[in-house]
Specification:
It is built from 18 helices and 14 strands. The chain has 3 domains: 36 residues, no CATH class; 127 residues, Rossmann fold (3-Layer(aba) Sandwich); 271 residues, Dihydrodipicolinate Reductase, domain 2 (2-Layer Sandwich), CATH 3.30.360.10. By secondary structure, it is of the alpha/beta class. α3 crosses α16 and α6 runs parallel beside α7. The relative contact order is 0.17. Bound molecules: nicotinamide-adenine-dinucleotide. The site of nicotinamide-adenine-dinucleotide has 23 residues, from loops.
């Protein structure tokens, strides 16, 4: 059941990255044979000649009064979807798939006493059978992220809409595969960037749309949270996949939680686009030391003690085509509290989420008072956030209700035949920072072009997520 070295090299797209020789990832198989495109992960990219068959921005598919769902991967994240989906009107969970039977049983048990009775699949390649079913509309991909693109492309090729966990792809070739497949099949491929739905992130999106920040010219964002405990836990992530990735890759392994919300505010792919980036990693001061410490007590960790790890801090600076800038950090090891930064700088105002408490400045060189902040919060928090916050508490939705809001709106849009909040170009652009930051780091912080996955359509594509700022939706939440 464990992933072997060959598969790890192939599925992470590490062949050709100069990192595949690591003792955890070394392998000799032809990457091209098993995962076409992965072998070229470093060098393909910005210059690709892509002809847009169909513009998926603003795409609306046929309304689906009932959305029939399959979930691939029932580790930790898969069950979070079950927890939300089981409370939504017009949803039927048809299939669950995981290679770990116990996880599968536990996931199915969450649906006991409901109208859902999904079939379960636990073979290594069974996810393909799930995608081949003709009674599934939406495939939710919650496996380790280096498998997402392979599974999403296969699902779209079998006529399914896709909701992929973050990031949606690990190589530039995979990003293009997602774009090409979505355009050819006209199936949605939404990367479920739930941090876009956090209350302060939606508040600042709404304020930006109302012009309160003026022209937003810079943003700082991050996913800074210690994964030292989780990554070194033997029984948490399947096959220690996260720790293996920190050994195998360089650059920002998890950019989208920070980048999604600020890209939405800055209308990336809709009036502006990422142009190029430079990235730098610090050395690793913690992970190898931790692996060595554990290896002294437990042979299981001996192979991990031989590795070198991505540095403690990764910093990327992006410049956009319209001359604006974004910094993205990823610290996965320091004891610093969870920190997304989410700093917005505009010509008329500014906002800062972390370190807490969240703050807003308007016009003057000072943060507004707490009273003033509350008034702004009351006035500009979208109705949808207010409406769902109580229901989210009652359904025990994750991330303070954010996950329920995201999943509910996805289902509501599919049922009503509306465009989704995020499209395949967002999935590709935001995920592309994973391989491109690595490319920059390995090139001593060389400047790397970021592909335009919209192939010029960014100039006329309309802003996203604006529908959800104002609409009520009609899908009931059953509590
Ligand atoms: N948006 C968020 O807030 C958030 C939070 C946590 C995780 N995630 C993302 O969700 C994804 C899953 O993370 P997780 O924490 O649940 O990891 P996990 O290791 O707990 O779960 C992944 C599951 O995939 C299964 N799997 C592996 N190979 C498979 C195959 N061939 N077929 C079917 N199932 C297979 C594993 O057995 C495991 O149960 C990751 O990509 C992660 O980045 C997102």
């Amino acid at each position: 059941m464990g992933i072997n070295r060959r598969d790890f090299v192939v599925k992470t797209g590490l062949a050709g990255l100069g990192l595949a020789g690591s003792s955890l990832t070394r392998g000799s198989a032809s990457a091209e044979a098993l995962n076409p495109g992965a072998a070229n992960a470093t060098n393909e990219s910005a210059g690709k000649k892509h002809v847009q068959r169909f513009n998926m921005s603003g795409f609306a598919s046929e309304p689906l009064p009932k959305v029939r769902v399959a979930i691939l991967g029932t580790g930790q994240r898969g069950p979070a979807y079950i927890q939300n989906l089981k409370h939504l009107e017009g949803v039927e969970i048809k299939a669950l798939c995981d290679i770990r039977p116990k996880k599968l049983e536990a996931a199915k048990a969450m649906l006991a006493g409901t109208a859902h009775n999904p079939d379960v699949y636990n073979g290594e390649e069974d996810w393909q059978k799930v995608c081949q079913r003709d009674d599934v509309d939406l495939v939710v991909v919650t496996t380790p992220w280096y498998m997402h693109a392979m599974m999403s492309v296969y699902a779209m090729n079998h006529g399914k809409h896709v909701a992929s966990e973050v990031p949606a792809a690990g190589t530039i070739d995979e990003c293009w595969q997602l774009v090409e497949t979505a355009e050819r099949t006209r199936r949605h491929c939404m990367m479920m960037e739930n941090y876009c739905y956090l209350p302060f992130q939606l508040l600042t999106l709404n304020m930006a749309r109302q012009g309160l920040f003026g022209e937003v010219f810079h943003a700082d964002c991050a996913y800074n949270t210690s994964k030292m405990h989780n990554n070194f836990s033997k029984n948490l992530y399947w096959n220690m996949w996260w720790l293996r990735l920190y050994a195998a890759r360089r650059g920002n392994l998890y950019p989208t939680h920070g980048l999604g919300p600020v890209s939405t505010i800055m209308n990336i792919n809709r009036g502006d686009k990422f142009e190029f980036l430079v990235s730098v990693d610090s050395d690793d001061f913690m992970m190898k030391a931790r692996a060595e410490e554990l290896a002294n007590k437990d042979d299981f960790f001996k192979p991990f003690a031989k590795e070198t790890y991505r540095g403690c801090m990764s910093v990327t600076t992006i410049r956009t085509t319209m001359g604006r800038t974004i910094t993205v950090q990823h610290d996965a090891s320091s004891p610093s509290p969870h920190n997304l930064i989410h700093a917005i700088y505009g010509t008329k105002g500014a906002a800062l989420y972390d370190p807490q408490p969240p703050r807003i400045a308007l016009g003057k060189h000072d943060w507004v008072s707490r009273d003033e902040f509350k008034k702004l919060q009351e006035k500009y928090t979208p109705e949808i956030t207010k409406k769902l916050s109580d229901l989210a508490a009652r359904t025990r939705a994750g991330h303070g209700g954010t996950d329920l809001l995201e999943t509910w709106h996805l289902i509501d849009c599919l049922r009503n035949g509306l465009p989704l909040d995020m499209d395949v170009y967002d999935a590709a652009a935001w995920s592309s920072i994973v391989p491109l930051s690595q490319q920059s780091v390995l090139g001593r912080s060389t400047s790397v072009d970021i592909p335009d996955f919209t192939v010029g359509a960014w100039k006329t594509n309309k802003p996203n997520m604006d529908i959800m700022l104002t609409r009520g939706g009609n899908t009931e939440i059953l509590v």
